From TrEMBL:
The lineage of its organism: Bacteria, Pseudomonadati, Pseudomonadota, Gammaproteobacteria, Alteromonadales. PANTHER family: HTH-TYPE TRANSCRIPTIONAL REGULATOR LEUO-RELATED, TRANSCRIPTIONAL REGULATORY PROTEIN. Keywords: DNA-binding, Transcription, Transcription regulation. Residues 11-68 form the HTH lysR-type domain. This is LysR family transcriptional regulator. InterPro entries: LysR-type_TF, LysR_HTH_N, LysR_subst-bd, WH-like_DNA-bd_sf, WH_DNA-bd_sf. It comes from Thalassotalea fonticola. SUPFAM superfamilies: Periplasmic binding protein-like II (SSF53850), Winged helix' DNA-binding domain (SSF46785). The keyword Transcription applies.
Amino acid sequence: MKILEQKLSRIDLNLLVSLSVLLKERHVGKSAETLFITQPAMSRTLQRLRDLFDDQLFYRTSVGISPTAKALELERMLPHALESLNSILSSEEFDPLTCEQSFSISIPSILSHNLILPLFNLLHKEAPSIQLIESTAKSNPFDLLEAGTLDFAIHVAKDIPPRFNAMSIGIVKTVIFARKDHPLTNKKQVTLDDCLTYDFVSLNVENNQSAKFTGPVEIMLAKRGASKEPLYKTSQLQMLLEIMENSDCLFVGPSLLINSLDLINHFVAVYEFNLPKKDMIEFFLLEHKRSENSKAHQWFKEKLLNQIEKLS
């Protein structure tokens, strides 16, 4: 491949266009008119073509020029070669129905629970051949985005390197959830101190337990001057909910979770953190700038953002 690239780098691809015109017109003068150049310039181009292919290519006749066997061989290959070049250089419309691309995204479990199923159903309907790859949210997704392992990441960091595009997708209210028959649901007004008398469960941001990342329980409680280490941590929301159903454990999460059918019938928000906007959790959609001109990626991004908007 390296030798091929070095060889092609010494070739003016415009010569192939000129050769194509010469083969069609079979006349130097008419070819010059087609390309809007002078006849002497066309003659010089023909000489460069002869040097390139080490062949006479055309012989003069009384009515124009006649191709050699080598030129006729090139005539059979040129349409495909030029069409391939045109496909590379042209900006064709993106058709989701024929797209076979895969898209990888990391999503926090607290958002994935409500987001992935409707997104998958939409994508499968509009682009049945694409592949959606979801992974657990990463405390540091930047290396994976840069390597192309991830196409998109939903993240909470605000210090975004300039080589990435970051779009705020919303600031969420954070609440403490309990099962519907939890003792706290009998109180008229629940305080944070009331909640701190119970154990908490928490969702891991990623499967890497050694990652130095503070989870939402720790963040929210620390901002209120409280401290409570979660009794149980998991990356599986369903397991967390089952534990809450069978214990008095509480869970700190975004208020939008209550819209989930899995939660609305079994859980209730017993306390809402009254935090200033600057201390609230803000989610960002991250992508590397290399994909900003990809119609496929931008189509996927639009569908993803539409589904995220429906969560609010």
